[in-house]
Amino acid sequence: MTRRLRVMQSFTTPRTTTNPYIAMLAESLRGEPRVELVTFSWPRALLGRYQAFHWHWPEARLASGSPLRRHLKKLLLRLLAERHRRSRRIGVVRTAHNPDLPDIADDERALLARIQEDADVVIRLNPTTAVDAGALVHDIPHGDYRAWFAGHSRPQRRPGRVVTFGQLRGYKGVEDLLLAFDEAHDIDHALSLTVAGRPTSAELTARLLAAASTGVTLDLRFVPDEELVQIISSASLVVLAYRDLHNSGSALAALSLNRPVLVPRSASTDALATDVGEEWVIRYERLTGTVLREAIAAAELLADDAAPDLSRRDWSEAGRRHADAYYAARAHRRSR
User: Fold this and answer.
1) Is the Cβ–Cβ distance between 332 and 136 less than 8 Å?
2) CA–CA distance, 30 with 13 (Å, rounded to integer)
3) Between 108 and which of 104, 220, 223, 275 could a Cys-Cys bridge form, CB atoms 3.0 to 4.6 Å apart?
4) Stated pTM of the model
5) Does domain 5-142+314-335 have CATH number 3.40.50?
């Protein structure tokens, strides 16, 4: 009988505001008989017993409200990375959520780079993600949100309604979308745009308030799932005007509610279109009012009961495939 592995995740116990990807992964792993799920705490991570460790966004472990606390967390993260580096018993896995390291202090970026390099297995959410030569790679697509949203009522789509949502950051291009929407709205006054999500800074909030004009509704707060389902479902089209879109949970959330997305063209969005259906992932080279109006028209050609193909993104398989990755990481570490 295969030995059950004790696997620590780099996330804490999921809460109502936790990224649904994390909550659904935790639930999937709890149903996997080969894995004992352990969530993160500094004492457990530094001193506890586990056979595999799974990194998601290691920079999240540095987040703090004060410089002193961030410095302390940096020291703890360095100790944890060193424990993993020296151990022959702890397999290290990381999910490549983002293609690049975050824009933080140089010493912190160097620490995150060390953590990346030390991984025994890299999990890719899509096959276009570049990884270091020689790394053990397991491709496990980002799961869908159909079960997550299943308990919420969904209104019918409204013609001409466009939505963007999620935590609002500068690189997500909301200001670019506002400009394109203004161009489109000048030609078709029936169009409307809802921007739903909490900006990450007061400066971005001020810029969005200044840029929003007729036809735009700004809902600049954390939006609970029940309301988010209403907002997405009422739209004809979801626009994700990211300046660099690689892995997007927001795209999967929209598709899980049977709403097409307008996204920048890239290797990853081309792969997503191939996977779920070309008509569901509309891509552009440069976002303009004309591009936006044409995308809305294309989205509204879809039948009310149409749905993208998300068959490869069922969470029922995710626990098993992650368990395979953990066993591979442990075997690789013991062979070093």
Assistant:
1) yes
2) 12
3) 104
4) 0.90
5) yes
